[in-house]
Amino acid sequence: MIGAIRSEWIKFRTVRANVILIAITLGLPLVLSAVLALVANNSMTDPRNSFGVAVIAPSMVAVYLCGVLGVLGIGQEYRHNTIRVTFAAQPRRSRVLAAKTVVYGTFGLLVGIVTPMLCLVLSSIIMRSRNVPYEADGAALIGLAVLCLLTTLFGFGLGSVMRQPAGAIPVFLLWPLLVESIVGAIFSAVNEDLIRWLPFRSGQQLASFGEDSMGPGVGFSRIVSGVYFGSWTLALVVLGWWLVERRDA
Amino acid sequence: MIEARGLTKKYGARVAVDNLSFDVQPGVVTGFLGPNGSGKSTTMRLLLGLDRPNAGVATFDGKPYTSYAQPLREVGALLDAAYLHPTRKARAHLHAVAASNGLSPGRVSEVLAMVGLTEVAEKRTGGFSLGMKQRLGIAAAMLGDPRTLLLDEPANGLDPEGVRWIREFLKHLASQGRTVLVSSHLLSEVALMADRLIVIGKGSLISSTTVDEFVRQFGHSWVRVKSPSMAALSQHLQAMGATLQFEDPLTAHVYGASATDIGTVAASNGIVLHQLADQTGSLEDAYLEVTNQTVEYRGAPK
Ligand SMILES: Nc1ncnc2c1ncn2[C@@H]1O[C@H](COP(=O)(O)OP(=O)(O)O)[C@@H](O)[C@H]1O
Ligand SMILES: [Mg+2]
């Protein structure tokens, strides 16, 4: 198992697309955080809002990029047929999948912890110098770390089910950004209570902050919406696992 | 030692491998021969547990491939040289494969040197020629110093020197007592490196013999005879049970009699011979003939 994890770790960091994506995942939120801290409005009523705008919002970029990396973690192997090399070297496929889950899950969790911390340090320096009131929200920080872990694994599960990244990445990105926006708009016209059942909307509750802590129209608490999004993630990972086991490589 | 029993694989309605059984012995190179689309690559994937068979089992030294925890130490395989991530460097590719079976980075350097890729080890494989990719695939197969090697069309894309290198390399490995199965759709290629042949057509076994036996069984041999007294000679030969086919009135192809027999008959009857030459139909002809028969047989309405 240690060997399988080491192998996946080597694969993770030796592909150019991954290296570039990792650099963007780590760098872009910091740039956004600095910019948002520079323009943050002095008149925000709740100091937790300036924290959310300068720390949580930029970190969400990293969350989605981690999900893309999760999709690529298995999708690239099918795209280039290296999955056959992988499964020839380790015919117990569940070990390979477990190793990928460990590597990508660890990466997602670390990004979910480190990125908001760095954003917090950077933006607090900037905002304090500009006398913008500022208050960190510990629950949102923990929630964001969990959300980043879950989103990474969500991408990995989706990639296992769909295999080809050319299909899986658009599905992964358009699902929250387009489909849930449209469906959410319809839901809010019909019955606002329905919105809580949208998996990504619910997942974002994990990292909600300030006055919108419960989020307009999303009725689950932070923990319940996390469990709900986690269930979607688990279902996708299990389905992907089952499919990868029984399909031809 | 590889044992395949009743391997069958269907893709939808198409039967790619059909109740295929064979043994591959250690100590010799076994050629796995069949025209394009006959099911060689599918069989290789079935042997390695990559494709799930509809029926049948395959074992390596008595155990199915999937039961080996570190299979690269038992079986090395080159399925397709293109199974690489184009932006990963050669050494990193081998590192990842080696790590999965607990093999050391030092071994990676060894196999890189073995196939002559040390200088391009830090280059991304996307820029490799097909020949370089084949060598990298062979390096990966050799990582665990396995007792059994499976190679799917390893000579594809190699220049003549590369083909010779592969041939000598595989013969050398077999001479160390390893089991070597190497596929090809070209008999001329495989005849040069293999001692035994497993020939398939349309997913079914046609023949599993030595190369020599295959030629005897399916190849034709005859004797070309030229004589100024052909009419007399032909009567003696027909009396012996031989059949003759005339190129011209003084030149015949004699089937069913050896050059020794013909020479003896001629001498004892005082017949002058101008030529007495053994002729062998090429192995390629024999192969095309048997595989075409399979195609025709298969194509016939049931
Ligand atoms: N993954 C697949 N899906 C559908 N058909 C396949 C697949 N792989 C191989 N085939 C079909 O199975 C037959 C055997 O193919 P293959 O094993 O690649 O032959 P060979 O290696 O001898 O050229 C061919 O008709 C091929 O089209
Ligand atoms: Mg093939």
TrEMBL record, chain A:
TM stretches of this protein: 20-39, 51-74, 102-127, 139-159, 171-190, 223-244
A family per Pfam: ABC2_membrane_4
The keyword Membrane appears for this protein: yes
Alphabetic keyword roster: Membrane, Transmembrane, Transmembrane helix
Protein name: Unannotated protein
TrEMBL record, chain B:
This protein's record includes keyword ATP-binding: yes
Database matches in Pfam families: ABC_tran
GO molecular function annotations of the record: ATP binding; ATP hydrolysis activity
Entries under SMART domains matching the protein: AAA
Record-linked InterPro entries: AAA+_ATPase, ABC_transporter-like_ATP-bd, ABC_transporter-like_CS, P-loop_NTPase
ABC transporter domain sequence ranges: 2-227
The entry's keywords: ATP-binding, Nucleotide-binding, Transport
Family indicated by similarity: Belongs to the ABC transporter superfamily.
Annotated protein name in UniProt: Unannotated protein
